[in-house]
Design goal:
Layout lengths: L25 H12 L6 E5 L6 H14 L23 H7 L6 E5 L2 E2 L4 E2 L11 H6 L8 E6 L6 H12 L5 E7 L7 H5 L2 E4 L5 H11 L5 H11 L3 H9 L2 H12 L7 H9 L7 H24 L10 H11 L2 H21 L3 H17 L1
Helix pairs in contact: 7-8, 8-9, 10-12, 11-15, 12-13, 12-14, 14-15
């Protein structure tokens, strides 16, 4: 999972570089093993799929496996055929990668901006300038050199061109693993030089199982509800749990169920919760949930297939909206609210007013 998918190393959940537990993508792991065992390990891999499904965890799992093989170039030590990418957490390679101290692994990701006190919005060229020289050097431990880019669709144009230059002239026994949440944003020339591996959303059973592992004190009912909000992303489910997203969603649906006549005091009290300092994460969560709920409503109207309710009252509220206006009208509202929330976060506008305006738009559209 990527850096955006789970809390950092000092959080309650294991970061991808420390995570030795990986489920839900057996077929993807087998593709990598087959390439290794047949000595056809590609010099560049592109791991694609939604956020929070395990792409970064797989990338580090690949890196640990390859670097633990020493100077072998595929097929396993002494001609054996590995059947799993897993290596023990007690393995020195695992420990050094977990600690960020393996000399043959370089990780390229967004850096922390000390002035703005947050991660940079993109990966800049200064972060990738040394990737080519790093991969061209002789491996410190006589084996492979590996670069992980997390995530490649966060590269700005100059950084992407620098990565492309490395991919055009790949050194021997060097590998680049690119993680992409939206591979369509990558340069076509980057995509064409990588072996693409698509990872799909996790099954509900897998998400619930992982929630049981990472949040053992969470009630079974809450695990199922968080699974319903996750869209097959354990990263999303854990993020929602961390910020009280299930309660936020319950309160949000309660207000949506009142439309077109929200109680004014209740609406203002709800919006007040996100206006203070240090409430940016909660605001980001509630706006994503609102946009997600509206998208589900529109999909319901288009297909006629009723979604499974995460909390009570969702489906009646969706039915009233679908009956009130044609879907193209709701699609227009969805786009306007999405743009409003993005602008509010990006330009640091009044968060309370943004939420109020979103509900005013919904009320007005329902009244026709």
């Amino acid at each position: 999972m990527s850096k955006d998918d789970l809390p950092e190393d000092d959080g309650p959940y294991p970061s991808p570089r420390k995570n030795d537990y990986f489920i839900g993508h057996d077929s993807a792991e087998q593709v990598i093993l087959n390439a290794w065992n047949s000595k056809r390990m590609h010099h560049a891999w592109l791991l694609c799929g939604p956020r929070g499904i395990g792409k970064a965890t797989l990338a580090y799992r690949m890196a640990r496996f390859v670097l633990s093989q020493g100077g072998d170039d595929g097929g396993g030590l002494f001609g054996d055929q590995p059947t799993s990418l897993s290596i023990s957490a007690e393995n020195p390679v695992f420990r050094r990668i977990a600690g960020g101290g393996h000399g043959d692994l370089k990780v390229i990701e967004r850096q922390y901006d000390d002035k703005k006190k947050r991660l940079q919005g993109e990966i800049v060229v200064d972060n990738v300038r040394t990737a080519g020289s790093f991969m061209s050097k002789t491996a410190a431990e006589g084996g492979w050199r590996i670069v992980i880019v997390d995530a490649a669709d966060e590269l700005n144009r100059n950084a992407a061109n620098a990565i492309l230059k490395v991919l055009e002239e790949p050194p021997a026994n060097a590998m680049m693993i690119l993680i992409a949440h939206q591979p369509g944003r990558l340069l076509p020339t980057i995509r064409s030089r990588c072996r693409k591996l698509d990872l799909g959303a996790l099954s509900d059973e897998t998400v619930v199982r992982l929630l049981g592992r990472y949040c053992p004190d969470l009630a079974d009912e809450d695990r199922l509800s968080l699974c319903g909000l996750s869209d097959g992303s354990i990263g999303r489910a854990l993020e929602l749990h961390e910020v009280g997203g299930l309660q936020l969603y319950t309160d949000l649906v309660g207000l949506l169920s009142q439309l077109p006549s929200c109680e004014t005091l209740a609406l203002h009290q709800f919006a007040d919760r996100f206006s203070g300092a240090g409430r940016e994460d909660e605001f980001h969560t509630v706006t994503e949930l609102l946009i997600w709920w509206l998208a589900r409503m529109i999909r319901f109207g288009a297909t006629g297939t009723a979604p499974v309710e995460v909390v009570g009252g969702e489906l009646p509220a969706m039915k009233r909206m679908v009956a009130a206006q044609p879907l193209d009208q709701w699609l227009e509202v969805w786009e306007k609210i999405s743009e409003l929330m993005a602008a509010t976060r990006g330009l640091h506008l009044d968060r309370k007013q943004a939420l109020l305006n979103a509900f005013f738009m919904l009320e007005e559209r329902m009244r026709g």
